[in-house]
């Protein structure tokens, strides 16, 4: 169509050459966009569709995770056609405008920039179609502020929520209920929960985006971590967002997993902003399985090593220190990574690291669910799982900083904050496992954290 329009105009050979060059660039943009959309869907499908056929090969002290089968494809036809049509229409309009007045080359450049903006906005709309729910922030606002970190982080946590929920639905056979909630002081969230299902007794994946002013109690918590905050008239405007998930399986041989990744931004009196990222992923098994521990920690290490060789060893130690039940003298689980107040080396590089971390939540955990979901277990093993869950509850209610911050923030949704608690748990007076048992082995690991790699 573009070639016919150009041919019909009686211009000089030089102008015709320019027309063809621009037409070629526009059609190339359309092909690239079509390929990009197809790649996005196919890569997402390829990452998770082969998990049911996963197997583990042990070689000496190492473990290699392999996937079998052909990756499935997501129904991306509609989105690819939509992107192609949008670009085709824009390309035709741009060529017609150029032909009408070939001398105004600046107009063609402006049209090209408009096409680029339209593509970016369309990308946000396409991403939203794949989420568990519409984002907390209005899509129009996200489009207007697509370059800001708050927008980019919100889109990332929404995407992570959708990928993890769908991977868990596939292994469980049940469906998550997406529960939207609003905070009158500003913001809201989407809590996706599945309860008493086939594999999971309770699984929650929650996204929250809140803003307003820090309370005095919340500000004190920030200052206790070394944050020097200068508010205006005692007020500190803030924006906080994050994704948090805790999975409690029915089978005691399937471990519990927790992950949380968040972004915090505070505006000070002079209008400047302080920002930082935080989060981590950790595993809490009922019974020790060293192959599982290796797979879990190695997946996290590979993500960390892409950014800094000290990230994994430093954040692994931080995790062991943070998830520690002091009154019991034991860690909550076998650790993982944990970090807070990450504001270097730059905002862009810190965000890139967070993106790498969120990309691990499915491959470091879902294969373990497939591996153990059908394992046989005894009543005594179920009892031990219930007792370990009691320790989990103790840490979350007594020490967890996220829970304490949420309870101190006005308008917080208590159901979402306490989503991490299991449906059932047990506390027995002066319980001690039998010496030499698998329960005693697990307790020894919790009292003396190991290096798993």
From TrEMBL:
<comment type="subunit">
    <text>Homodimer.</text>
</comment>
<dbReference type="InterPro" id="IPR001260">
    <property type="entry name" value="Coprogen_oxidase_aer"/>
</dbReference>
<dbReference type="GO" id="GO:0004109">
    <property type="term" value="F:coproporphyrinogen oxidase activity"/>
</dbReference>
<feature type="transmembrane region" description="Helical">
    <location>
        <begin position="83"/>
        <end position="103"/>
    </location>
</feature>
<protein>
    <recommendedName>
        <fullName>Oxygen-dependent coproporphyrinogen-III oxidase, mitochondrial</fullName>
        <ecNumber>1.3.3.3</ecNumber>
    </recommendedName>
</protein>
<keyword id="KW-0350">Heme biosynthesis</keyword>
<keyword id="KW-0627">Porphyrin biosynthesis</keyword>
<dbReference type="Pfam" id="PF01218">
    <property type="entry name" value="Coprogen_oxidas"/>
</dbReference>
<dbReference type="GO" id="GO:0005737">
    <property type="term" value="C:cytoplasm"/>
</dbReference>
<keyword id="KW-1133">Transmembrane helix</keyword>
<dbReference type="GO" id="GO:0006782">
    <property type="term" value="P:protoporphyrinogen IX biosynthetic process"/>
</dbReference>
<dbReference type="InterPro" id="IPR036406">
    <property type="entry name" value="Coprogen_oxidase_aer_sf"/>
</dbReference>
<keyword id="KW-0560">Oxidoreductase</keyword>
<keyword id="KW-0472">Membrane</keyword>
<comment type="similarity">
    <text>Belongs to the aerobic coproporphyrinogen-III oxidase family.</text>
</comment>
<dbReference type="InterPro" id="IPR018375">
    <property type="entry name" value="Coprogen_oxidase_CS"/>
</dbReference>
<comment type="pathway">
    <text>Porphyrin-containing compound metabolism; protoporphyrin-IX biosynthesis; protoporphyrinogen-IX from coproporphyrinogen-III (O2 route): step 1/1.</text>
</comment>
<keyword id="KW-0812">Transmembrane</keyword>
């Amino acid at each position: 169509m573009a070639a016919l329009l150009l041919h019909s105009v009686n211009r000089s050979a030089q102008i015709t050459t320019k027309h063809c060059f621009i037409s070629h660039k526009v059609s190339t943009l359309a092909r690239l966009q079509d390929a990009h959309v197809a790649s996005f869907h196919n890569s997402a499908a390829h990452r998770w569709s082969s998990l049911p056929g996963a197997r583990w090969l042990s070689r000496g002290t190492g473990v290699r995770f392999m996937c079998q089968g052909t990756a499935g494809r997501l129904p991306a036809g509609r989105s690819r056609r939509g992107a192609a049509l949008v670009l085709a229409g824009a390309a035709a309009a741009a060529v017609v405008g150029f032909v009408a007045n070939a001398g105004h080359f600046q107009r063609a450049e402006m049209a090209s920039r408009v096409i680029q903006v339209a593509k970016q906005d369309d990308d946000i709309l396409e991403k939203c179609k794949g989420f568990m729910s519409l984002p907390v922030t209005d899509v129009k606002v996200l489009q207007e502020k697509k370059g800001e970190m708050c927008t980019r982080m919100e889109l990332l946590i929404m995407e992570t929520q959708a990928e993890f929920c769908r991977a868990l639905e596939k292994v469980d056979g049940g469906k998550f209920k997406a529960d939207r909630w609003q905070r009158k002081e500003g913001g809201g969230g989407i809590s996706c929960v599945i309860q008493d299902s086939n594999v999971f007794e309770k699984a929650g994946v929650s996204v929250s985006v809140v803003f307003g002013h820090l309370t005095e109690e919340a500000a004190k918590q920030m200052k206790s971590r070394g944050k020097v905050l200068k508010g205006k008239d005692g007020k500190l405007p803030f924006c906080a967002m994050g994704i948090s998930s805790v999975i409690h399986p029915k089978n005691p041989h399937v471990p519990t997993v927790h992950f949380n990744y968040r972004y915090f931004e505070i505006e000070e009196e002079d209008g400047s902003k302080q920002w930082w990222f935080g989060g981590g992923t950790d595993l809490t098994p009922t019974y020790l399985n060293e192959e599982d521990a290796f797979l879990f920690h190695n997946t996290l290490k590979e993500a960390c090593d892409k950014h800094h060789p000290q990230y994994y060893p430093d954040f692994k130690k931080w995790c062991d220190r943070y998830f520690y039940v002091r009154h019991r003298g034991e860690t909550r689980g076998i650790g993982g990574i944990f970090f807070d107040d990450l504001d270097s080396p730059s905002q862009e590089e810190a965000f890139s690291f967070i993106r790498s971390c969120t990309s691990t939540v499915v491959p470091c955990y879902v294969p373990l669910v497939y591996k153990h979901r059908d394992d046989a277990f005894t009543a005594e093993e179920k009892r031990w799982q219930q007792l370990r869950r009691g320790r989990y509850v103790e840490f979350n209610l007594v020490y967890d900083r996220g829970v304490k911050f949420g309870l101190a923030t006005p308008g917080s949704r208590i159901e979402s904050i306490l989503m991490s608690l299991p449906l059932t748990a047990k506390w027995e007076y002066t319980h001690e496992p039998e010496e030499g048992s698998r329960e005693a082995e697990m307790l020894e690991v919790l009292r003396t954290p190991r290096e798993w790699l």
